[in-house]
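agent> step 3/5: call structure_predict on target 'ABC transporter permease subunit' (Microvirga makkahensis).
agent> reason: downstream docking stage needs a structural representation; sequence fetched in step 2, passing through unchanged.
tool.input:
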Amino acid sequence: MRHFRKKASGSLMAIVFWTLASLITLLPIYWMFAVSAKSRVQLFGSPSFVISSFFTENYTITLSDPAFQRYMINSIVIATSNALLVTALALLATYALSRYKLPGKENLFFWTITNRMAPPAVFLLPLFLLYTQVFVVADVRLFDTRIGLILLYCVFNLPFAIWTLRGVIDGIPKELDEAAFVDGANTWQVLTQVILPLAKPGLAVTGILTWVFAWNEYLFAATLTSVHARTITTGLAEFVTVTGTNWGRMAATAMLTLVPALLVLGLAQRHIVAGLTFGAVKE
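tool.output (status=ok):
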């Protein structure tokens, strides 16, 4: 009886804790939604968490704004292209690090992850000079281009993707590779027909996290773009002007930027838990 009460008390405390943690996490999102649903007059009145009337103009004006549409398309193209490219390159790199006896491969693996440790601001000036002065052919340059941001995000997201996939590939028995080689398969066939299907959960998690990192990135997008390749995160700053801040439209735009991320997470949700735990336990 005492054991049952102790177990029930522990379960109740866990429920209370996670309920409070969820409320604390969701509170800023709800407040942002509440701000997006109010007019300027309501916002500068007494603040309230209750939405008495929904001010739809913040959303209709934003959705019909050509600049918002261009920023959203840029973000989707850049984040998706970066996620696909990084995941493919990371799969090739981790397969080589896992299966081949490369000299100093552990040092190489550690060196790749150290690239994520440096503050991004350190690279701003060198990258700006490279994009505006060095990587220039005639009138073509990487500054303010989608491909420029895609390649740049690869530099910072690829080490993380390799680190994430390393445990996934190591968790796949090498005996499966050897059996495929005995049956006459080449390295490419082993990678695509044996490793790829088994590593799908890990690849899904890696792709999702890489996509989210590219989607949320602000510093490089704000510095290395001006008009054509601006992303939705940099577009949020345009609501802050010398005449004031349009909090309603800014909040509405921020809420709309959550929709693609929620869709991506929802579609790949079943792979997330499996991918995060894949390779964690070895027999």
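agent> step 4/5: record observation. The beta strands are 136-137, 140-141, 240-241, 244-245.
agent> proceeding.
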